Amino acid sequence: MKTVFGFVTSACLLTLAGCSMEWTRPNTTEAASSQDRLQCEQQALSMYPVMMSPTGTADPQLAAINCATSGSPINCGATPDVTPPTQTDANALNRTTAVSLCLESKGYVFKMGN
Fold first, then answer.
1. Are 84 and 104 in contact (CB under 8 A)?
2. What is the pLDDT of residues 101-114, one digit of tens each?
3. On the CB side of 92, how many CA atoms lie within 13 Å of its CA?
4. Whole-structure pTM over 0.85, yes or no?
5. Which label site among 22, 54, 65, 85 has the fewest CB atoms less than 10 Å from its CB?
6. Are residues 3 and 23 in the same domain?
7. How many domains does the chain fold into?
8. 107 near 15, Cβ under 8 Å?
């Protein structure tokens, strides 16, 4: 599983770096390739449905104490250290991996181009 995770991570990084990548299989039309990919994506979605989960801290108890010495007495105030929660799909990587494994099982290989 670590190999697949590393492969997917590398693929994402290379895409961001400007390389194009695609799944290919000899003697396969674009229509057939699209159909195979759609089947794999549907299968992966049924195995790993979208599961949104919050990330970030929402605990206002974690605070930074700021004190100013302008005058007497010293004025202090607490600034909450809160990262607004965001939503991420906890199953996104599992779905991507499942699609990759499905396409590989159908004879596709992942190729990088320029």
1. no
2. 999 999 999 998 75
3. 9
4. no
5. 65
6. yes
7. 2
8. no
